[in-house]
Amino acid sequence: MNPQAFIASLSYDIRLAPYDVQGSIAHARMLAKCRIIPSRDAKRIIKGLEAILSGLGRGKRLPQEEDIHFAIERELIRRIGPVGGKLHTARSRNDQIALDLKLYLRDQIELITREIIRLQKAIVFIAEKNMDVVMPGFTHMQHAQPILFAHHILAYAWMLERDKGRFADAWKRADEMPLGSAALAGTSFPIDRTYVAKLLGFSRVTPNSIDTVSDRDFLVEFISAAALVMTHLSRLAEELILWSSSEFNMIRLQNEFTSGSSIMPQKRNPDVAEIIRGESGRIYGNLIALLTILKGLPLSYNRDLQEDKPPFFDTVDTLQGCLAVAGPMIATMVVRADRMRALCDRGFLAATELADYLTEKGIPFRTAHGVVKRIVAYCEGQRIRLDELTLEELRRFDTHFDSGALRVLSVDQVVHVKDSFGGTSPRRVREQLARLKKLIR
After folding, report:
1. How are the residues of the chain apportioned to helix, strand and coil, as percentages rounded to the nearest 5?
2. How far apart are CA 156 and CA 150, in angstroms?
3. Which of 54, 261, 400, 416 is catalytic?
4. In angstroms, rounded to a whole number, what is the distance separating the alpha carbons of residues 408 and 438?
5. Alpha-carbon distance 410 to 432, whole Å?
6. Is the pTM of this model over 0.85?
7. Which residue of the set 11, 88, 140, 214 is catalytic?
């Protein structure tokens, strides 16, 4: 293979073209301001760059060069002549690529944050639509206590809220302007880095030129945040897959989010949810790839860093795709309220309430726990539910039971009394919804 073709990166860093031009325009303005190049030359350069940017918007291709920086420079020189070569004064591809990546990253974080908010709105919508639906809550995949479906699905909205916070933090650390660090040692030209930062919307400039050109922490942080989003999306997808199975039959996904079997005509497979679940591994792999690239690099810049872009760009595309499809899938799914309620009749979901009832009578909880455990064993032997017990049967296990004990065995009652802050009672779930609406409007 041709070695020059082997090291070329234009095929994938072409997406950085608008940002490379944007940074170059700011750099040219600074060179003129600091009288490093004549103003007339800077104006010609800027006009040429603006023409290149316009051409890119119309789909015009750049020359085939080693990378996006050389491609734009060559096109600029083709358009305006040798004066275009003055643009590279006081900068290097090393600080140039760091700038391009940060400009691109900041835009992508804003786009991804908007997608997260759309998904949160879909979750809030389906929660409000099914506010009165009661379902079994699970621990260890065993029936545990009755909860509101809205309470369960809103858990994912809060996960996503934390994800937004992580991306906001990542944006802050990408808000340092690297241009002016040059190859690694800075430059002897009297540049004004703060001016360039202001032109490009950065709040500050990087303080160490060696760290600047070798730093990819901001990409690691972004992909790490993306990996956590995918963890949350994968957990959500797993539950949708389980809930839509014949065994659970708690929801139905719309046909556009499923596909038929190639051999079994009766089946509808939750393929979209399964792909989301699978894509999590892809982004985890991207994170490991970038960490591995960085872990043994001596300072400062090394060509290994060219390999940061494929995993980074793939993470951006994969995450945006998963977020975009997850929202409509959630918003349009059918919640089978009757089936969820019927499943609450299994697993003795009011057992904890019965133990709490004895505790309120002065019995130590650990003792009450043992009493109710024996009651559950009795019900299993008799093949009856807790709410089918008579007061006489309850008092065989403990005389502290009275007629009030029968009332705590209602599934609806159990849900309503879970009224601690953040609990599953209707009042507390409505509070959650109100808080979320303020955060995502």
Report:
1. 70, 5, 25
2. 10
3. 261
4. 35
5. 24
6. yes
7. 140
Q: Are 425 and 419 in contact (CB under 8 A)?
A: yes
CA distances (Å), 400 to each of 350, 382, 384, in order? Answer: 18, 22, 22
Distance from the Cα of residue 223 to its chain's centroid: 10
Which helix (H) or strand (E) segment holds residue 205: the answer is strand 204-205
Residue with structure tokens 């997608």?
115
Q: Which residue has the tokens 């639509």?
A: 129
Q: How confident is the model at residue 280 (pLDDT cuts 50, 70, 90)?
A: very high
The tens digit of pLDDT for each residue in 289-328 reads 999 999 999 999 999 999 999 999 999 999 999 999 999 9
pLDDT digit string, tens, across residues 61-83:
999 999 999 999 999 999 999 99
Note whether 177 and 147 are within 8 A (CB): no
Tokens of 342: 């019927």
**Across the strands, what pairs with 134?**
148
- With beta carbons less than 8 A apart as the criterion, state whether 180 and 27 touch: no
Between CA 276 and CA 231 the distance in angstroms is 10
DSSP 370-381: HHHHHHHHHHHH
- Outline where 176-308 has alpha helix (H): 193-200, 209-214, 217-243, 271-295
User: Would you call 232 a catalytic residue per the annotation?
Assistant: no
| C-alpha dist (Å) from residue 98 to 7, 16, 216, 247, 283 | 18, 11, 8, 52, 22
- For 147, the enclosing helix (H) or strand (E) is strand 142-148
Q: Residue 140 catalytic?
A: yes
Residue type, 395: R
Tokens 């810049």: give the residue: 301
Helix/strand/coil (H/E/C) assignment for every residue in 393-422: HHHCCCCCCCCHHHHCCCHHHHHHHCCCCC
Q: Which of 300, 104, 109 is nearest to 212 (CA)?
A: 300
CA separation for the pair 347, 136 (Å, rounded):
9
Give one word for 215, left, alpha or beta, with left for phi > 0 and alpha for psi -120 to 50. Answer: beta
